[in-house]
Amino acid sequence: MCALTWTAKLLPIAATGRDRMKHLTGVTMALTLALSGCALITPKTANYVVPPLGSSWVTARSDSGSYGSTRSQITNKRGEQTWQEQHLTTFETPGFSQLLNDQGGIVAFLNGDKPMVTFDPALGFAYPLEVGKTLTSTHKVTIYPSKNVVPLQVTQKVEAYEDVTVPAGTFKAFRISWSESNGNENTYWVSPELGITVKSSLVRTAKWSTGPGKRENEMVSLNINK
Questions:
Q1: CB within 10 Å: which end of the chain, N or C, has fewer?
Q2: Entry pTM
Q3: CB–CB of 25/33 below 8 Å?
Q4: How many CB atoms lie within 10 A of CB 176?
C-alpha cells in the first residue's frame, strides 16, 4: 500500500475562472504523478535470506491424483553440511535433505549421505526477487537410482507481493508461478524475511508420465532460532 499526503491551497475568492482552471490542472497533474510514482514502487529483496541454524517449521501436505491420496505433516529443520567440498545449507526432513547454495538454489537431494537427485546448475528462485521479473533457465538433472540424466527447462515469474495466510500466521510473500518442461505447473509463496516457502501448490498436468495430480503445502508452525 502506498501512503500519499497531499495538501492543496484554496485560491482567493476573487480568482478568475482561468486561474481556477490552471490551479485544478496543476493539482491533477501533481496527483497523477504522485499516484504513478506509487504504482512504480515494487517490493524487492536483494539477496536470499538463510533461516538461522537450528530453526524448524512444520508443513501440512495434501496429495491427490498421481501424487497419491494422503495427508501428512512434515517437520523441516535448517542445518548445514559439507558435500563435494561445498559448505551448504540443508533443509532436513525425515527421509531426505535438500542441499542449498548461498542463493537458496537446490544443489541436491540426499538420502543420508547418498545423492538421490542433483541439479546443474542449482535449481532455485530468481533472486533478487521483484514483481514482474521473469526468468527461463535450463538444468541438467541427474537421477541417481535410475542413473538417468535429463534436461529440465524452468520458466518462473514473480507475479505479486502479497499477504498469505496459513495456519502458522499471515506473512508477506512473493507469489511465484513456476512452469517446468516435464509438465509441472507450480505456485510458490516465498517469505523474503524468513527465506522459507510458506505455501505452495504443485500441479502435475496431463503431460506428466503418471497423469495429473496435485500437492498442496502450508506451514502450520514455525520456530525461528534466535
A1: N
A2: 0.81
A3: no
A4: 21
